[in-house]
Amino acid sequence: MSTQPGDPDIATPASLFDLSGRVAVVTGASSGLGLGFARALAGAGATVYAAARRVDRLTELARTDSRIVPVPCDVTRDADRTALVDRCYAESGRLDVLVNNAGRPGPPQAEQETDAEFHAILELNLLAGFHLATYAASRLPEGAHASYINISSVIGLVSTAPIGGASYAASKAGTLGLTRELAGQWGRRGIRVNAVVPGWFDTEMTDGLFGNEKSAGWVRRNTMLGRGGRTGEVDGAVLFLASDASSYMTGQTLVVDGGWTAR
Asked: pTM for the complete prediction?
């Protein structure tokens, strides 16, 4: 298939989503949504550099698909970020897809957060993705195309009090603004930048939310589909944005929340 998005020889639905020959990076890939993203992109044919701090989990993930390459990485460290991108180019000669997924929540109550804690959340959830994207863009050869996907949250769109948190909301709202700005700056260079906004999913990050009937009921009542997200239900959105199926799409926010923010 063609490696240039939008070429006329891309004809069949299957070819639109085919990532054969592409190279992707997924951060925060050791668990939760990130693990699913890595599997989905590898399943579509990409070589996936799965990055996270928990090496044992990455190694286990890599055993499930030979196209997944485990990379120990703390994205808050500049040296780790540059080493991640440099390794892609050293081993594969390219980096076509970047999924900025690594992140964590902060305290739910604003008055419980210290300045240091607030800064740490922004550093991981927002600044790390910005620096990783800018370094990846600096390494992209002239004439090459790439798709960068930032993972935000419904908490970046609407208040979800009493669940959420000020630092987390700020970081995820900032991710959406960053997505639009980078898309505007890099579009003519062939770099598409989009964001995915997941709703409520039962992952390590939401530990306890679905195990408690009161909070699980809150999710069901306020979601149009009447349930939380299921494993794999964000993967299609990431695959769409990574592939030629979205070749004329940039600066956009794709919400996958069961209708939570549409109420």
From this structure: 0.92
